[in-house]
Each structure stands twice: as structure tokens, then as C-alpha cells.
Design a protein that fits this description.
There is one protein chain. The chain is built from 23 helices and no strands. With 508 residues, it is mostly helical. Helix 13 packs antiparallel against helix 16 and helix 13 runs parallel beside helix 20. The longest helix is centred in the middle third of the chain and has 37 residues. The radius of gyration is 23 Å and the shape is globular. The two termini are 23 Å apart.
């Protein structure tokens, strides 16, 4: 079995664990905490998104520079990037955590947290922020196995993370107090276990070539990493505004209950992104390796065809979910939340195009073309905040507000990525736009089909809902065939052994 297909199988196992845990996790927390208290989570965890700006940017920048040196067999410089990144992660934690503890009272007031939840939310923020810094150390350690395309090992860690968080939360809520801070404590304990496991994997794979030693800590050698990191951070800061600031707006203008409703609805979008990631994540290390080895024609081929496969799969999933949104919310959560299915539709409609665009945008990071993306992202984010405030103060309602957010996300998450990609490989830009249009057409067809099937069946129980989803996935897959050419199928065959399976069936 090839490494790519081994990665694919473990991606499926990881996805299964993620979906099973997610489908159990959100209803569990809603039932234990109540909708209003559950609404505290997306508000309190907004801070995490800003910290993730730095930590994710650090990981992405280190991965690029480390991989180039590693692929060129410059193991000493690779060791410098590897060791220094872990040291920088630890230093950031030591600086930020004391500042956070001092700032929590003011932060709780700014987030408009009810007084009876202030202590619990303060602990929640402390635990989750600490877990983020532990996680970024783990991610920096895992750069070594990621650059070798060992996603199977990373997937084992993800499975452990998902299951541990659920089991620890059940344990804490069952045998201790029912408190929202348990969510953060479970996350911290899980990430400590992940860090230990990450170092164990490093020492069992690359510790003889890429060394983790104090003598390789060289902050000055990290200057190109920090330069790239700064622009990625600016771009990510904008993304947080566009994708995550809605929780704060909704809490201030509509109240904590509606924040909880939207937070629970948004979780389903995360599941669809995770399912798409089963395929999409497999192409990313291949793109990184092709760039590091200067195989640019191969990089373009992987990018445009891989992005299209990701877009088609995401269109199928999101189209089905949008059509069945009211039935899904009724069966998964309750009748009360199902009346807000239009919110779910608006949140889901951007995912196929933004996942397509973000896959194209990987090339921009590989080429370190991040400055212009960061500047334009800030412009889009500021425009989004301004227009949102106007819409909300005019009393135009939730649907208008969510629509503004969807438009901003499409501009930043798709159009901007593709526009900057043109600088690196202008000859392929026509194909990129054509394939994006084809994704949109397919997405619309699946949505219309799903709405029709839901109108005819309108599932009110889990078995019937599963039947609806199965029918639509099969029909959607059949409809996708005219949208796939030979190059697309070749790229899909890298992951799924389509040709060998068809060949065996044909021989029979």
C-alpha cells in the first residue's frame, strides 16, 4: 500500500472518530449546560482564535522553511528551524500566560459574560489558552513527520485528541461538577498527552538526522520565519474577524441564547470541512514536497486538480446538508433549533468555494506571497465590520448580518487566494476559474436535488434521515461524473484506487 493511500485510510478513521465524537459532543454539552450557558463557549473561545493566529502562523512558516532545508539534505539548518520553533513556542507561553491572568477580569467584562459565570469562564479561558500553547509545541515537533508525508501518524494523534476530549468531558461532568470550565480542563489534559506522544514519534523516526538540542536554538536564524509569520498573522487576524467575530456581534445585538443557537448550528459546518479534509489534506504535503524539490509543473497539476476534487466533494456534502438542514437540526438537536435552518444554509453555502480557494492558496504560502494577501484581507475585514455594524444598527436582522459575513468570506477565502495565485502560475489561472465555476454549477444542482428530496420525505427520525442522506449522496455522486475529466480522475486515483477497482470489476 502506498503512503498516500495509507494516509487516506487513517484520514477516514480520523474523520469517523471526529464525526462520531462531534455528533455526541455538542448535544452532550447543550444538554448538560443548557443552550444559554453553551452560548458562552463561542464567546469565551474567541480569544483562542487570536492566539491561534500566532501559533498557526508559526507552524506554517516553520514547516515551509524546514521542509526546504530537509529536502535539500541541509540537516543542520533543518535542526535549527525545528529546535528554535519549539523554543519560541515555549517562550511565547511563558510571556503570554501571566499577562492573560492579569487581563481576565477586564476581558470578561468586554465579552459581556454574566457575573454568575465569570469564574467558570475565567478558568475556561485559562485552560484553553494553555492547551493551545501546548498544542503548538506538539505541532512544531510534528513538522518532521509531516514533511515526510506521514499523515498516518498525525492522524493517530488526532484520533487520540478527539476521543480523549469527549471521554474526559464525560468523566468530569459525571463525577465532578457540571461546569463550563471542564471543557477547557479536558482540552489541556488532552494536549499534554499529545505532546508526550509527539516527542515519542519524533524519537522513533527522525531524531538521528534532525536533532533537538539546545545548541541549535538560534533566534536570529529565524528572521525569515518571523517575517513570513508576521504577514500570515495579519491575514489570519482578518480571517478571525470574518469567520469568528459573529459570536460577539450576535451576543451584543441578539443575546446569549441566539449565540448558543448559531454556535451549535455552526458545528455542522465544521464536520463538513472535516469530511472534505479526508481528501484535501492528502494533497498538501504532496504540494509542499513538489515545491521543496522545485517540481513546479507537478505542483501546478496537484494544486488545480486537487483543489477541484476538494471543491466537488465539499459541494456534494454541503449541498446535501443545506437541502436537509431543517430535518438534520430537528433530529440532531431539537425542534426548537430546527426553525433556524436558514441560518445553517447561509453558513454552509460558502464552504465549497472557500475550501476550493484555500487549497489554491496553499501555493501562495509556499511561494511566500503572503504580504499582499494580508493587506487585502485587512481591507475586506474592516469593510465587513463596518457594513455589519450598519446592518445591525439599522435592525435588518440576523439573515442580513449572516449574508454580509458570507460575502466577506467568499471574497477573502476564495477570490483573493486565486487572484494572488495568478502571480506564481499565470498560465494556469484560466483553468482555476473554469473549475471554480463548474464547482458552483454542481453545488447548485445538488442543493436543488436535496431540497426536492427533503420536500418529498421530510425525515423526522434518525433512520429516515440516514435513508435521505444515502439517497442524495448516491445521486449526487452520479451527477458528479460529467463534471470530472481525465486529469481530475487521475488526481483522485492518487488517493482512491479507482482504476484498479474498475479494472477488477471489468475482468469479472
Amino acid at each position: 500500500m502506498t503512503q498516500i493511500r495509507k494516509n487516506f485510510l487513517t484520514n477516514i478513521f480520523c474523520l469517523a472518530a471526529n464525526v462520531i465524537v462531534g455528533l455526541m459532543y455538542t448535544p452532550f454539552l447543550v444538554n448538560k449546560l443548557g443552550v444559554a450557558t453553551y452560548g458562552v463557549l463561542p464567546i469565551a473561545l474567541v480569544l483562542n482564535q487570536y492566539i491561534l493566529i500566532i501559533t498557526d502562523a508559526l507552524q506554517g512558516s516553520v514547516t515551509r522553511f524546514y521542509s526546504i532545508e530537509y529536502r535539500q539534505k541541509n540537516y543542520k539548518q533543518a535542526s535549527v528551524y525545528f529546535t528554535s520553533a519549539i523554543a519560541v513556542s515555549a517562550i511565547l507561553a511563558l510571556i503570554f500566560m501571566p499577562v492573560l491572568e492579569i487581563s481576565i477580569p477586564m476581558l470578561l467584562q468586554w465579552l459581556n459574560i454574566p457575573k454568575d459565570l465569570a469564574n467558570s469562564v475565567g478558568l475556561l479561558i485559562t485552560y484553553t489558552v494553555a492547551s493551545l500553547f501546548v498544542a503548538v509545541c506538539s505541532n512544531c515537533v510534528n513538522v518532521t513527520i509531516y514533511s515526510d508525508n506521514r499523515l498516518d501518524l498525525i492522524n493517530y494523534l488526532k484520533i487520540f485528541r478527539n476521543l480523549s476530549k469527549l471521554l474526559l468531558n464525560v468523566f468530569l461532568f459525571t463525577f465532578f461538577v457540571i461546569d463550563v470550565s471542564n471543557v477547557g480542563l479536558a482540552s489541556l489534559l488532552t494536549e499534554i498527552g499529545i505532546l508526550i506522544a509527539s516527542f515519542a514519534m519524533y524519537y522513533s523516526t527522525r531524531h538521528k538526522e534532525v536533532l533537538f538540542e539546545m545548541k541549535y536554538i538560534n533566534i536570529s536564524a529565524m528572521k525569515p520565519v518571523f517575517k513570513m509569520l508576521s504577514w500570515i498573522s495579519v491575514a489570519s487576524f482578518s480571517s478571525v474577524f470574518i469567520y469568528k467575530i459573529d459570536a460577539l456581534f450576535i451576543n451584543n445585538f441578539f443575546g446569549l441564547y441566539y449565540t448558543g443557537v448559531l454556535g451549535s448550528i455552526s458545528e455542522f459546518g465544521s464536520y463538513c470541512i472535516s469530511i472534505t479534509g479526508v481528501i484535501g489534506l492528502l494533497y498538501r504535503p504532496l504540494m509542499l514536497i513538489a515545491y521543496s524539490e522545485k517540481r513546479h509543473d507537478e505542483l501546478v497539476r496537484i494544486t488545480i486538480n486537487g483543489a477541484y476534487i476538494v471543491g466537488i466533494i465539499s459541494s456534494l456534502l454541503c449541498g446535501v446538508v443545506m437541502g436537509l438542514s431543517s430535518s438534520i437540526l430537528r433530529v440532531w438537536l431539537n425542534d426548537e433549533i430546527s426553525q433556524y435552518s436558514i441560518w445553517m444554509i447561509i453558513k454552509m453555502m460558502i464552504i465549497p468555494i472557500t475550501t476550493y480557494g484555500s487549497t489554491i492558496g496553499i501555493v501562495n504560502n509556499l511561494w511566500n506571497n503572503v504580504k499582499s494577501f494580508a493587506v487585502w484581507s485587512i481591507v475586506i475585514a474592516l469593510a465587513y465590520v463596518l457594513v455589519s455594524l450598519i446592518v445591525l444598527n439599522l435592525g435588518l436582522g440576523m439573515i442580513a448580518f449572516l449574508t454580509v459575513g458570507a460575502l466577506a468570506a467568499l471574497l477573502q477565502g476564495a477570490i483573493l487566494h486565486i487572484s494572488i495565485y495568478k502571480k506564481a502560475y499565470p498560465k494556469s489561472i484560466k483553468t482555476v476559474y473554469v473549475q471554480m465555476i463548474k464547482c458552483c454549477v454542481y453545488f447548485i444542482l445538488v442543493c436543488m436535488l436535496s431540497l426536492f428530496v427533503n420536500y418529498m420525505i421530510d425525515a423526522k427520525s434518525l433512520p429516515l434521515l440516514i435513508v435521505e442522506i444515502t439517497i442524495l449522496v448516491v445521486l449526487g455522486t452520479i451527477i458528479s461524473l460529467p463534471f470530472l475529466n481525465r486529469q481530475n480522475l487521475d488526481m483522485l486515483d492518487v488517493v482512491l484506487p479507482i482504476r484498479s477497482v474498475v479494472s477488477k470489476l471489468y475482468k469479472k
